[in-house]
């Protein structure tokens, strides 16, 4: 990818994935899914056409939150759950930057639950990438907000009695304008989703199923393994029917308000009966339905769930500032600071 240096068009720099690899030793457990997410993040960066000094990765606390160290860009390893808040402030102050929030299921949906909701509902123009391994990995295997019911861990030896959160449904409930899901073991699909997230104006939320081979190995294997993936996953494509299966002979249709799996050619079912995926529908009803489809009752949906346009927080703030200047003038910070009651402390 060619990027033009801000000093002028005569200074052209060609960037590759290697340019986004930092000099820091990558320190994750061997075989961790985070390696793949890092590799695809580095791989997609040159295609964005943005100088490295205009890209920032901000993370909270957790295994995933080490990622900013390994990107040869600006980065901020912040505090637990607060990456969305810091990222919002940065994007507001420096709207020209490409800001990425890197988080995990525990960091984002437990201590950071309040913060993730507000950055999404405000539609701040940034990208949120949530590594979901359904476990607390950094703190050695406690159950997380996305761990399934009855999950046996060190902190739930008799099985978790907490009902799990669904990250996509949480994002949709917060009025997210872009919601997608991908897999750590499908690099091409992940690159596509990260690229789509960057193209979107507003808060982009991407959940990535990520294997923790130490504390939750194989959590998604029953539907992500290569030999069963086609029959147990639904790869969404905008404007196309929701068809899946190795022979592309199964699909999703609506039965009243409930989705159901049907077989093409059986009982008179044709492609015309299959639900067409439209990621641009403003009404989130179908998107919510997709966010709640789980294996084994349904194939697990991946791809862009929702992509709608709405004014961003940054745009609305700029409009307010412009209106304030138009109606009240430029203003003077020094006068504002000194107006009202003042006093002077004199030396004795």
Give the number of DSSP strands: 13
Envelope shape = globular
Average pLDDT reading: 94
- CATH structural architecture of the domain at 19-219 and 311-320: 3-Layer(aba) Sandwich
User: Radius of gyration from the CA trace?
Assistant: 23 Å
Helix content: 25-40%
Structure description:
The protein has a domain at 19-219 and 311-320: 3-Layer(aba) Sandwich (Rossmann fold), CATH 3.40.50. It has 11 helices and 13 strands. Helix 1 (34-44) packs across helix 6 (187-199), helix 2 (83-93) packs parallel to helix 4 and helix 3 (105-111) packs across helix 4 (113-121). An 8-stranded mixed sheet has the order 4-3-5-6-8-7-13-9, sandwiched between helices. The chain has a 3-stranded antiparallel sheet with strand order 10-11-12. It has a two-stranded antiparallel ribbon with strand order 1-2. The mean pLDDT is 94. Helices cover 27% and strands 19% of the residues. By secondary structure, it is α/β, with parallel strands linked by helices. The protein has helices at 34-44, 83-93, 105-111, 113-121, 167-173, 187-199, 221-224, 229-232, 285-291, 313-328, 333-338; strands at 2-4, 12-14, 55-59, 74-77, 98-104, 127-132, 178-183, 204-209, 233-235, 243-244, 250-255, 258-263, 300-307.
